[in-house]
Amino acid sequence: MHMSRPSDRGMLTMPTVRGDERRATEGLSGMIGYYVELAAHSLRRNKVLTALMILAIAVGIGASMTTLTIMHLLSGDPLRGRSGQVFYPQLDANPDSKGRQPYDMLDYPSATDLWSAHRADRQALVVNSHIKLQAPGTRLPPLMLSMLSTTSDFFPMFDVPFRFGRSWTPEDDTAHARVAVISSDLNDRLFGGENSVGRTVRLKNSDVRVVGVLAPWRPSPLFYDVRGGRFSSGDTANFYDKPEGVITPFSTALEINDGGFQPFTCWVLPITPGHLQNSQCVWIALWVQLGDSAKVDAYRRFLDGYVAQQQSLGRITRTDNTRLRSLTEWLDFNGVVPSDVKLQTSLAFAFLAICLCNVVGLLLAKFLRRGGEIGLRRAMGATRRAVFTQCLVEAGVIGVLGGLGGLLLTVLGLWLVRRQPLPYADFVHLDVSMFVVTLLISVGASLLAGLLPAARASLVEPALQLKVL
Amino acid sequence: MGNPQIQPVLAALRKHRIATIVIAWEIALACAVLCNACFLIAGRVQAMHVQSGVDEHALGTIKLEGFEPQQANDLNARVVAGLRAVPGVQSVSTVSAVPFGEPGVIAGVHLDAAGQQFGGVVDFYVAGPGAAKAMGLRPLTGRMPAPDEYMPVAQIVPNEAPIVITRVLAEHFWPGQDPLDKMLWSMDTHFRVVGVVDHLTIPQPGAGEEKDADWSILVPAMPGPQFAGKYLLQASPEDLPRVMRDARTAVLKIAPDAVLDLAQSRTVDELRETFFLNDRVMTGLLIAVIVALLGTTALGIVGLASFWVAQRRRQIGVRRALGATRGDILRYFQIENFLIVTFGIALGMILAYAINMILMSFYELPRLPFWYLPVGALVLWVLGQLAVLAPAMRAAAVPPVAAIRSL
Q1: Domain edge (last residue) among A333, A354, A380
Q2: Helix crossing, B6-15 with B326-363: angle to 10°?
Q3: What are the CA-CA distances from residue B401 to residues A261, A374, B244, B313, B315 (Å)?
Q4: DSSP category for residue A235
Q5: Residues B209, B134: contact at Cβ < 8 Å?
Q6: Last residue within a domain, chosen from A296, A312, A333
Q7: What is the rounded distance in angstroms from the CA atom of residue B102 to the CA atom of residue A273?
Q8: Count of H helices and E strands in chain B?
Q9: For chains A and B, what is the number of CB pairs under 8 angstroms?
Q10: Is B166 helix (H, G, I), strand (E, B) or coil?
Q11: B124 shares contact with chain A (CB less than 8 Å)
């Protein structure tokens, strides 16, 4: 560590004193500018220590901002402000229900009854299955992919962007039309990104016509497929998978992929595996859009009424076990942010706290070591406030430099995360808001770290220090 | 370190109260994070070293999809015959899942016919003839299924099948009792225990509702329409990588109508590697945090001690002039550091348990074992002494003449 000799100190102290007197009359902004100059001067005086403090802040900020950016990306609202209007009805269709949380999905009769009642502004059934896809006229070998089957309201309800063509119509839903919408990724893979509307793809044994191609669409999380989070032991990274490659009408999918459906769970095993329409299984999700709270209340009553009616028909036993969670509540209930990510974030912030303690200690030592200088300034008429401000400015300069370093480390950290085999690696990036937050947190943290040492330094008594000198 | 030295050190620290408190807090935080991070690493490492119970190095799997149940018997026959013809293959059998591969059949089980006594959620390995032998499973008690006990699958599993369970599961279902010939009810049928094996891990240990990695059950079954597409290959460990490459190529010719799942058609070693990738990354990250944390703390101590040494140059000179040896000065700084670190550790232990409590409530973690604290304390004491050594030696090198020359 560098140790300044007494002669250095004398030399360096003199311009400080003169400067103070000269600029004391120049107003606040002039003073701050002068303090920045002083801070730079003081930081240069002990390069190793300065580098140490800047490094501590940079590493702490880099680690915490990397993890915070990921948290921010993973816990964002996938529907940008409309999550409060989209709801997820649940009911308990198990006749032997023990009154626990209702199942995460619906059985076929309940789902189709609720959907066809059309009591919401918009409603969409959602079911996923695995299917074999071939594209006649391309040289691609057959591939297995995940198929989303839904109803036409899905696209307007979730603001799904189209690149070519359009979604299918409600008439296609009822007509079991052999149509499909494909993702931008699949379109690139099969048709080289051309407008493939009107082309045919073979799904299992059926030919379907492409009516629409999506623009790149990457909701995070893949909210309409979120379910079962509470059974995943916090390992929920898969909620951030990419959307399905091919989307078909629900009614069509039941025919073309008959035998290919997996239940969420069953209380009686299906007679024909993969064919679940008449089974005692839950396997379909229903999403509804409700514009205002009156509609939400009305839908709640409708849901309870439906369950009561089904009870009288003997199909459902529990009438008190319905839920109508908003999308936001549903995501919270499923704990979508992986527990590893939360753990990393808390670790990073604990680390930042340690780095800050470090900086507090070093600043304190540094300011008090200049006790003589400060005492002299006080004796020359500098107020406590002036000393305090000057020390804070020095801490702030360290904060800005540390923040810039931290920003570089954040970019590096995010680059490392993007290289990890994580489902969400592809959309990890530093956005403008996090860029600003990084700098603010860094400067804020350094000012906080500077507060105590600066306050202590401003308490230096002029006379006492002069005696020492 | 003589006792009489502590009093003056404490008196000096009281003069630097704020700096002392700050550095003690830093050490406290470091101690708390260190203990918990090490505990998390230990948990991950333990999870990664789960015993699969199968002969991992000699096993690989081939997975086919995209065929109809009607084609299954034909496909099974073609694939099994074709894969057996691959040079180096010792056996080919049909399975529903392999350790560290995709999850297979998961179901809740009851210990009584009425379904009152819930046993838990377990994994079922549906295994065709030869699979148990290829896996290298040997019964601790009882026996493995006999050749005539392999029955066709009804919907997911055969009805009323004899099963082999793990030691952990037997102890969980019937503590202290003989598990042989006990019955289990699940998936609309019931099973009879004929054998117990030491270990058989569930395909995805630590990821689901199963309470232990060994909560799996082996059900013998005959391949058929609902039990096809996933094959277990056995080869000698040296041959296995080549055998798997050849098998992947061969199966494309044997079953051009089906789709080969390349991600799953791997050796069990590769599947294990992939399955624990996240845990490895997380462990690396935790280690990096620990290193950065100890480094930062050490640098903080070096920085502060250096300043104190510089500040007390004259006093050191006075002490030296009055007859203190270099060793006395060295010890002074060492004792000072020891005291600060000790304050920090005392605070850190409380903090460590507090963090552990918070983690326990969020992540289903066990309680931090007590012995982590003395180990963590020792690490920080050593770190503190090492960090203070250089500044303390510089202090010891201050000549007595500094008493009159400085300032």
Answers
A1: A333
A2: 70
A3: 89, 27, 79, 10, 11
A4: -
A5: no
A6: A333
A7: 19
A8: 12, 12
A9: 149
A10: strand
A11: no
Average pLDDT over residues B317-334: 90
Our measurement of the distance from residue A16's CA atom to the centroid of its chain's CA atoms, rounded to an integer in Å, reads 48
Residues 220-259 of B with CB under 8 A from A: 226, 259
Q: Which residues of A touch B391 (CB under 8 A)?
A: 1
**Does A221 sit behind a cis peptide bond, omega within 30 degrees of 0 on the bond before it?**
yes
| Spatial CA neighbour of B337 closest among B395, B255, B250, B266 | B395
Report the C-alpha gap between B30 and B22 in whole angstroms: 12
Whether residues A410 and A322 share a domain: the answer is no
What DSSP assignment string belongs to B140-163? Answer: EEE-PPPGGG-EE-SSSS-TT-EE
Tell me the chain A residues in contact with residue B68 when contact means C-beta distances shorter than 8 Å.
259
* CB-nearest partner of A233 from B289, B303, B364: B364
Alpha helices for A380-431 (secondary structure H): 384-418
- pLDDT by residue (tens digit) across A362-389? 888 788 777 778 888 888 888 888 888 8
Please, what's the b/e burial string for A13-33 (b: 16 or more CB within 10 A of its CB; e: otherwise)? beebeeebeeebeeeeeebee
Question: In this prediction, does ipTM exceed 0.90?
Answer: no
In whole angstroms, what is the distance from residue B50 CA to residue B53 CA? 9
Could you tell me if residue A404 is inside a domain?
A: yes
B406/A142 Cβ within 8 A: no
> Given pLDDT bands bounded at 50, 70 and 90, which one contains residue A28?
low
Q: Hey, which residues does B352 pair with through a beta bridge?
A: none
Tokens at A196, concatenated? 């493939």
Residue B280: which residues within 8 A CB-CB, separation 6 or more?
B48
Q: Are residues A282 and A343 in the same domain?
A: no
Question: Between chains, do A233 and B286 touch, taking CB under 8 Å as contact?
Answer: no
Q: Within this chain, do residues A134 and A224 fall inside the same structural domain, yes or no?
A: yes
Q: Are B3 and A331 in contact (CB under 8 A)?
A: no
The pLDDT value recorded for residue A452 is 83
Chain-centroid distance, C-alpha B198: 20
Q: Give the whole-angstrom CA distance, residue A266 versus residue A270.
A: 8
Q: Per the structure, how many domains does chain A have?
A: 2
**Which residues form the domain of A388?**
6-75+339-468
CA quadruple B248, B252, B257, B260: dihedral sign: positive
Residue given tokens 């730079």 in the structure block = A40
- Of residues A183 and B289, the one with the higher pLDDT is A183
Residues A250 and A321 in one domain: yes
Shortest Cα–Cα distance, B10 to chain A (Å): 18
What residues of chain A lie within 8 A of the CB of B406, using their CB?
6
Reported as a single tens digit per residue, the pLDDT across B295-323 is 989 988 888 888 888 878 888 888 888 88
Q: What is the pLDDT of residues B30-53, one digit of tens each?
A: 999 999 999 999 989 998 999 999
- Pick from B236, B232, B253: which is nearest to B88 by CA? B236
Q: Is residue A1 in a domain? A: no
Indicate whether A415 belongs to any domain: yes
Measured CA to CA, the distance from residue A360 to residue A450 in angstroms comes to 6
Cα distance between residue B42 and residue B367, in whole Å: 13
Q: Is B261 on the interface with A (CB under 8 A)?
A: yes
